[in-house]
From TrEMBL:
Pfam families given in the database record: HTH_1, LysR_substrate
Annotated ranges, domain HTH lysR-type: 8-65
GO-annotated biological processes: DNA-templated transcription
Keyword vocabulary terms for this entry: DNA-binding, Transcription, Transcription regulation
Family designation: Belongs to the LysR transcriptional regulatory family.
Gene Ontology terms, MF aspect: DNA-binding transcription factor activity; sequence-specific DNA binding
CDD domains on file: PBP2_GcdR_TrpI_HvrB_AmpR_like (cd08432)
InterPro entries: LysR-type_TF_proteobact-type (IPR058163), LysR_HTH_N (IPR000847), LysR_subst-bd (IPR005119), WH-like_DNA-bd_sf (IPR036388), WH_DNA-bd_sf (IPR036390)
Name of the protein: Transcriptional regulator, LysR family
Keyword DNA-binding in annotation: yes
Length: 310
């Protein structure tokens, strides 16, 4: 007779899921760290609970019955989701873990080139960087800190700007030498558009007092790091921020071809997390490190005016 339907034998369900996925009682036993006999007993208990046979032995393997196949199909996705949620929560609760979400462009151009210094200063931490443009749902995802692109309007969360970025045209020096163009010359060149940027060519031309031509040569990218790399490769002239282009500007693979670019600056990158995350040691350490890196970068940028026109 089937057992009380209100009682869920969760352990037996998990063991059956492992055996069905492995296709072997002995392999499931190895995965679970128990004996094959213990696996068989749990599956038998689940069969009694359901009132039907789920698995039959065929040699060394375990084959699913028709009912077993249907049951496995119905529970597999949910078991996987429970497993993923459990791992996320374990990672969040671990005092040695730090999960950072950042946009792909900031991760590639600013965070990763500096991250080694944070790892060296915090050798006990396991750091995971999740590069995506999707904002974190902190109530459902195991993310500690979000470095978020946007306007900075996220009520109920801790929000701190990283830095005010300066936007200006940049290209490979082989395409145009530094400080050789007027803003009005740019529409005759191929222009690289970063479609998600908060500073677009139309706005920059307005600031420069230039009426853009109705049709211009252009190439569009949906990631700033792709626009920067395209400019390095001589594809055209990009309009990007010094935060994203700093390594390229400092090394000279990108230059500003405009003599007197109009001032154009915005804050586009923000440190974001729930206020209760600030109690975690590794979160505080990461925020302090980002601030120190930011301050060092600003001091270098503001102390080297000539890099814009090398």
């Amino acid at each position: 007779m089937p057992q009380d339907p209100m009682h869920l034998p969760l352990r037996a369900i998990a063991v059956f899921h492992a055996a069905a996925r492995a296709g072997s009682v002995s392999r499931a036993a190895q995965d679970l760290g128990v004996t094959p006999s213990a696996v068989s007993q749990q599956i038998a208990a689940l069969e009694v609970h359901l009132g039907t046979s789920l698995m039959v032995k065929t040699g060394r393997r375990a084959a699913l019955t028709e009912a077993g196949e249907r049951y496995f199909e119905m529970i597999a996705e949910h078991i996987d989701r429970v497993s993923e949620a459990t791992q996320n929560v374990r990672g969040y609760l671990s005092s040695k873990s730090l999960v950072v979400r950042a946009t792909p462009s900031l991760s590639t151009k600013w965070l990763l080139p500096r991250l080694g210094r944070f790892l060296d200063a915090n050798p006990d931490l396991d750091v995971r960087v999740d590069a995506t443009n999707e904002p974190t749902d902190f109530s459902r995802e195991g993310v500690d800190v979000d470095i978020r692109h946007g306007e900075g309007n996220w009520p109920g969360l801790f929000v701190e700007s990283i830095a005010e970025e300066r936007f200006f045209p940049a290209c490979a020096p082989a395409l145009c030498a530094p400080a050789t163009l007027e803003p009005s010359d740019l529409p005759s060149h191929r222009l690289i558009h970063s479609v998600k940027s908060q500073m677009q060519w139309g706005r920059w031309f307005s600031a420069a007092g230039v009426t853009a031509v109705p049709a211009w040569r252009r190439v569009l990218f949906d990631r700033s790091h792709m626009a920067v790399d395209a400019a390095v490769n001589g594809i055209g002239i990009a309009l990007e921020s010094d935060l994203m282009m700093w390594r390229e500007l400092r090394s000279g693979v990108l230059v500003c071809p405009v003599r007197h670019p109009p001032p154009a600056s915005r804050v586009t990158q923000w440190l974001v997390c729930p206020h209760d995350r600030l109690r975690r040691r590794q979160v505080r350490a990461f925020l302090d490190w980002v601030r120190a890196e930011r301050d060092s970068w600003l001091a270098e940028r503001d102390g080297q005016i000539e890099w814009r026109f090398r």
